[in-house]
């Protein structure tokens, strides 16, 4: 199974490295980080570069694609090279997936019209501008389209997909291998339960920029 | 605050990319991926290379160091260049931390003698060979030494550290930013609760190699 992890300047690393870590354990998986041009691609914080081993053009028809999100999404929403590739790849894919604001790229490519989808909570409503139905859940499956909420949600999405592709037992083995038994020291990972002033602060661009 | 993320051939990406994503949001954080030699460093699956922006020698005294685990750990346990760097860095650090089998590197460098520490469940007992006390918890703090269990546990460790360094509110803001509200689709992330035959299969090197 060919799996393309799509990255671009100022993507968010965990968005795709979570799914990479899980999906890379699928039987016969062939994963590649892909970008418009091969070579190092720098993340949103500037502190990390991952290597895109292949150009988008070199991997036109992956069986599964995972589109990263991040502050760089906004620029890519107007990049015809990426949007054209997404449309062509999606036409032949078995699964088309995204993490975080990566769903805005699928939406901008016209792939989520009339579909239920999710995104990072801070940009979720933007999906509606592209004819998608925003759903505030952690992993949303609509046919072959699987979208995950912000950043860390890609891990849950990838385990869900692993179960669909290789069966529950294999997915459980991968969960055990990666010791994915989360114990967050706080309960602030969702805008429904985080302190309201922090939600507001992030929404208005205080402390961190969301996009 | 200078933060060094220590990687080497055949490290496990999520071990350090989890902490990178969280710790990179500390106020005034300066993170760098470091390796014996700068340049691309390939992970255990072979499907990903991250760039080590600096050589170990170029960052001799980070305030905080995070040591990755992975199948490559075993070779590094006999690499004097890395072990010497760990000892010198630890002598000046505020926090010395590891994820997964990375704690075996701290232990092999002699830094965990008489200390409580954790590791990936599959190699946890190996810590005792170096005079550490193996503790089967997700995040173990003993003075300035903070060790995390396997792979995904680095996220919990990094949020715990963020709270200690920058306060609970900042840690909660980072948790909200990264939407870390985990919803694993299975309950198999710990050897205590995963199906026993899967634990046995992984221990004996079936399906995946643990180290």
Automatic annotation (TrEMBL), chains A, B:
Protein's GO biological process: regulation of DNA-templated transcription
Pfam families: DJ-1_PfpI
UniProt-listed Gene3D superfamilies: 3.40.50.880
Keyword Ligase: no
Gene Ontology terms, MF aspect: transferase activity
DJ-1/PfpI domain ranges (all copies): 2-161
Superkingdom: Bacteria
Membrane-crossing residue ranges in chain numbering: none
Record key words, sorted: Glutamine amidotransferase, Transferase
InterPro entries registered for this protein in UniProt: Class_I_gatase-like, DJ-1/PfpI, INH-QAR
Keyword Transferase: yes
SUPFAM superfamilies membership: Class I glutamine amidotransferase-like
Name of this chain's protein: Glutamine amidotransferase
Source species of the chain: Streptomyces monashensis
């Amino acid at each position: 199974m060919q799996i393309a992890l799509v990255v671009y300047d100022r993507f968010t690393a965990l968005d795709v490295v979570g799914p990479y870590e899980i999906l890379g354990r699928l039987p016969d998986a062939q994963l590649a980080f892909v970008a418009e041009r091969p070579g190092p691609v720098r993340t949103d914080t500037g502190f990390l570069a991952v290597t895109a081993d292949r150009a988008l053009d070199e991997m036109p028809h992956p069986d599964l694609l995972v589109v990263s999100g991040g502050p760089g999404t906004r620029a890519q929403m107007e990049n015809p090279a990426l949007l054209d590739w997404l449309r062509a790849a999606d036409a032949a894919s078995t699964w088309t997936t995204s993490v975080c604001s990566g769903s805005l790229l699928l939406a901008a490519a016209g792939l989520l019209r009339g579909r239920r989808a999710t995104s990072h909570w801070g940009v979720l409503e933007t999906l509606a501008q592209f004819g998608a139905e925003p759903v505030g859940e952690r992993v949303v499956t609509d046919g072959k389209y699987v979208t995950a909420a912000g950043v860390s949600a890609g891990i849950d999405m990838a385990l869900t997909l692993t179960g669909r592709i290789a069966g529950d037992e294999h997915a459980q083995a991968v969960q055990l291998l990666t010791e994915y038994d989360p114990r967050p020291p706080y309960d602030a990972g969702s805008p429904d339960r985080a302190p309201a002033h922090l939600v507001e602060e992030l929404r208005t661009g205080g402390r961190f920029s969301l996009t």
